Amino acid sequence: MRKNGHDRMGRQRWQCDGCRLTAGTRNNTKRRRTQLAEFLDWLLEAAPQRKRPESARNFRKRVDWCWRLEPRIEPDGVVHRVVMADGTYVNGW
Questions:
Q1: Exposed e or buried b for every residue in 9-35, given b needs 16+ CB within 10 A?
Q2: pLDDT score at 22
Q3: Model confidence over 14-72: pLDDT tens digits?
Q4: 15 Cβ contact partners less than 8 Å away, ≥ 6 residues apart
Q5: How confident is the model at residue 93 (pLDDT cuts 50, 70, 90)?
Q6: Is beta strand 22-24 parallel, antiparallel or unpaired with respect to 2-6?
Q7: CA nearest to 67, candidates 42, 31, 91
Q8: Cβ atoms within 10 A of the Cβ of 39, count?
Q9: Terminus-to-terminus CA distance in the chain, angstroms?
Q10: DSSP calls for the chain
């Protein structure tokens, strides 16, 4: 693949050297960031799905990927004498 100019929106185009097929790439970062913010709004702020401008089913379908995110738990650097662990929610980590 090699660079092949830009499309009308200014995104980079690519061309395959073997078959001369061109393709563009999409950056879903902004869309995903917005969806994650909406999901966290609903999850943490108790904004009901029925008050959204779209159907509840459509909202659940759009933010389905958010349930599969695994949070990164950073160590705090403090050494404790006792560690209490509940295996209910850490299965598979």
A1: eeeeeeeeeeeeeeeeeeeeeeeeeeb
A2: 84
A3: 898 889 888 887 777 888 999 999 899 888 887 777 777 888 889 899 999 999 999 88
A4: 1, 2, 3, 4, 21, 22, 23
A5: low
A6: unpaired
A7: 42
A8: 19
A9: 38
A10: -EEEEE-TTSPEEEE-TTT--EEE----HHHHHHHHHHHHHHHHH---GGGSSS-HHHHHHHTGGGGG------------S-----TTS-TT-
> Which token pair is 45?
């702020």
- Quick one: pLDDT band at residue 89, thresholds 50, 70, 90? low
What local confidence, expressed as pLDDT, does residue 64 receive? 94
The two structure tokens encoding residue 50: 């029925």
